[in-house]
Amino acid sequence: MMDVIVCAKSLSHEFYWGFSVSRTGQLDFGGKITSPKATELAKMQKIEPSGYFSPSWYTYLPETMQAKITLFIKNSMKLEDSDLFSYIMHIGALLLAVETGDTLLAAELFDRRSYVFMKFYPLTAYILEDIAPEMLFAWQFGRFTDGSEPFAKGRYATYEEKSTSAQLFKLAEKKLSSGKAKESLDEMFVRYFEKQKKIDLTIGIVGANYRNWDSGIDYLDNILAKHIGEDLLNGTTKVRDTKQRIYDNLKASVQAEPYNNYDMNAIAVLLEDIESVAAGNPCMKKAGYIRATGAAILRKAFPSTMSFSAALARIGNLQDGKQGVVVRIKI
Fold first, then answer.
1. Is 126 exposed, middle or buried (0-12, 13-18, 19+ CB in 10 A)?
2. How many Å apart are CA 292 and CA 18, to the nearest integer?
């Protein structure tokens, strides 16, 4: 039996991860575990984790991510170390993002509490090692603004390093770096993507406001709000389920635009127009673009790929639940 069990439970999915603590206070990760018996969990302390992540912040999240996270801790376990307790309180949301493969969300969650996660660097590196390069790519080239700090070549993170880019590079370095001193981060990613048999990452798009695709969000909310009426409980449930079905089924297209007059490496993102879907006559509408540097890396790594397999991953970010469209790209 693990000393700490992290549970993430949504309507249709249930995940459990286990941690053990040695006599010296060393925290070890037991990985994903089978569903414990209710009688076993009843013998443990039930603790609500930190609220640094909530599905309610987002206009749309896949149902798997709409999970309640709960901690179960052995009664005999002593949690006198504040850093260890903080790690346990925050790791659940990050584990869920890793489990669902939302690389951008994993990077965003890591950024919010990186000072805690990096204090347990070996443990964090083990948890994130499979998707650390994709997290770095999403963080550096796939956020909603160009405000990411520049990555300094030849600069390595320490445990106290405050740069999220440098910390993520430290986590991804084993898979990403070739050891070439003069290789830039862009070149590293081109080489890394070329070697991979498959690519699965989430990435934010820019220009959604300019393209006005997100006006359909308010349109849908206004229509559905009228149907809540006096039956608040059941009406709210129906509206929530209807919105979930609509967003779950929105089609996405991510395709290269080598004919683009401004950027021959441009990669456009098209999504089904929400208003046309509500009217029963769906059509695709340009929602925005992959940021220029990220698009250039993908085009160089996959020069013959004109259309990328894509799906809507979520709507909203950690600062604004309606701003920010994230797509999932698979190659």
1. middle
2. 40
Integer Cα distance of 202 and 187 in angstroms: 20
Longest dimension (CA), the chain: 66
Q: What is the pLDDT of residues 33-51, one digit of tens each?
A: 999 999 999 999 999 999 8
Answer whether 6's CB lies under 8 Å from 71's CB: yes
Phi, psi torsion values for 286, nearest 5 degrees: -65, 125
What CA–CA distance (Å, rounded) separates 99 from 94?
9
Q: What is the Cα–Cα distance from 2 to 216, expressed in whole angstroms?
A: 47
Q: What are phi and psi of 156, to 5 degrees?
A: -115, 145
pLDDT at 148 over 60: no
CA gap 211, 75 in Å, rounded: 54
Query: 196 with 185: CB under 8 angstroms?
Result: no
Burial, 91: exposed, middle or buried (Cβ in 10 Å; 0-12, 13-18, 19+)? buried
What is the C-alpha to C-alpha distance for residues 21 and 23, in angstroms, rounded to an integer?
A: 7
Instruction: Give CA–CA dist 177/154, Å, rounded.
Output: 11
Tokens encoding 206: 């820019």
Distance CA 114, CA 124 (A): 10
Distance CA 316, CA 331 (A): 24
- pTM score, whole prediction: 0.90
HEC readout, 227-281? CCCCCHHHHHHHHHHHHHHHHHCCCEEEEECCCCCCCCCCEEEEEECHHHHHCCC
61-70, 208-217, 298-307, 316-325: lowest mean pLDDT where?
A: 316-325
Give residue-wise pLDDT tens across range 264-282: 999 999 999 998 888 888 8
